[in-house]
Fold this sequence. Notes:
CATH topology of the largest domain in chain B: GMP Synthetase, Chain A, domain 3
Strand order of the largest sheet of chain B: 1-2-3
Shape of chain B: globular
Number of strands of chain A: 12
Number of helices of chain A: 11
Low-confidence stretches of chain B: none
Distance between the termini of chain B: 42 Å
Mean pLDDT of chain B: 96
Helix content of chain A: 25-40%
CATH architecture of the largest domain in chain A: 3-Layer(aba) Sandwich
Mean pLDDT of chain A: 92
Number of strands of chain B: 6
Number of helices of chain B: 4
Largest sheet of chain A: 6 strands, mixed
Radius of gyration of chain B: 18 Å
Radius of gyration of chain A: 20 Å
CATH topology of the largest domain in chain A: D-Maltodextrin-Binding Protein, domain 2
Number of domains of chain A: 2
Low-confidence stretches of chain A: 274-287
Order of helices and strands of chain A: EHEHEHEEEHEHEHEEHHEHHEH
Largest sheet of chain B: 3 strands, antiparallel
Largest interface: A-B, 14 and 11 residues
Number of domains of chain B: 2
CATH superfamily of the largest domain in chain A: Periplasmic binding protein-like II
Distance between the termini of chain A: 52 Å
CATH class of the largest domain in chain B: Alpha Beta
Oligomer: heterodimer
Strand content of chain A: 15-25%
Structural class of chain B: alpha+beta
Amino acid sequence: MDRPILVGAVLYDPKVSVIWDIIRDFFEEHRCPIDAVFYTNYELMVRALVHGHIDIAWNSPLAWLDAERQLGGACRAIAMRDTDRDRVSHIITKTSGGVATLADLRGKTLAVGAKDSPQATLIPLRWLQRHGLEPGRDFQVRRFDVLIGKHGDHVGGELQAWQCLAQGGADASALLDLNWERWIRDGTIDPHAYRILTTTAPFDHCCFTVRADFPHDREHQFVQVLFAMRYDDPKHREMMDMEGLKAWVPGRTTGYALLREADPIRGMLEGSTDNHSATTTSDAQRR
Amino acid sequence: MESYSWRLRVCCAEPGQANVFTRQHQFRVGAPVSFDEADKAISALEYVLGAIGADLVNGLQALARKRRLTIEQIEAVVEGELNNALTYLGVVGETGHPGLEKVRIRVSLASPEAEAAIQHLWQEMLVISPLVRTFQAAIQLECSLQVVA
């Protein structure tokens, strides 16, 4: 039997390890043993992939871009969840507030998630830029840096941004479509009290990433087992529900274009870590 | 005094579970710690937390009988936190340790006795409780009592 394939994942909540136990067992049953290696942040995991310490990384979209950059493009996105494809983020406002159009956002405050969250910060800010609204110049950004390094996987910053809007600390907030739907479903958000001001273009989320030199036969073996998971099989469904997918699909990188465009914004936010710039306010730092 | 010790035998029952034998009793223990709500076995950590709560619930009743005081109902809610659960899972880059950091025990009891008498009983219990005395010295242990007439 081949040595186990080492699969890296960022773990922010111990409960997520349960999903990986189920995945590991599934792969074991299908004679494709894997071992999960957990990392506290994406930077460490990408480094491990680049140096060949792991074979496959379960990358956030930002981590994919970092891996691609560090490897000079010598990597492949091999698989993703169906729900990773064609996501959008919304910028929402209060129905009763004075922001009804994008133009109304001028001079106002937008609450966003962590500075490294593609869905709750980087992509929404880039989207507004595309529409002629420059962060810091045309509107203020109030940022909620919760668990930096986890690329917004932890929705804490996104939730705090919405709470900031709800409490009147901002005029709008940014959030992923799935969270907008989830928080309406669970009663967190009253859909009559808020409206969607704008919705970004679609983008893709996580993907399994390998280096270009990862053997194709092992990659094939891995994705074949992954794609063998069936939502209509009760044994697989539990894990798939926990991971929020109905099917695994081939990886693609075309969905990262919008995030790639947001690179200058990322650079600007990175630079504001140690001192508050006029354009950003880190609530986490203030506490 | 000669030291008094307890001897238990712990055997593997099936993968991930151990049988513990003590005197004429036995019980089964699962993983050291579990994050799976659906885990079929009780973890070692849960046994420890349950044991601290039971120490106080059963100890207080025994002490009350000894002092001829009536306790009608009693229960405890125990919450435990590890220093950093992610270190147990071997997460690269995490710091700290997987040991218990804090345990909070809230005991509620109903009694027709004067509250002062129950409070005195509680203080006495905290002094003689083997597990409270053990954990007090090692971690943040918060014990509180609520008396309902």
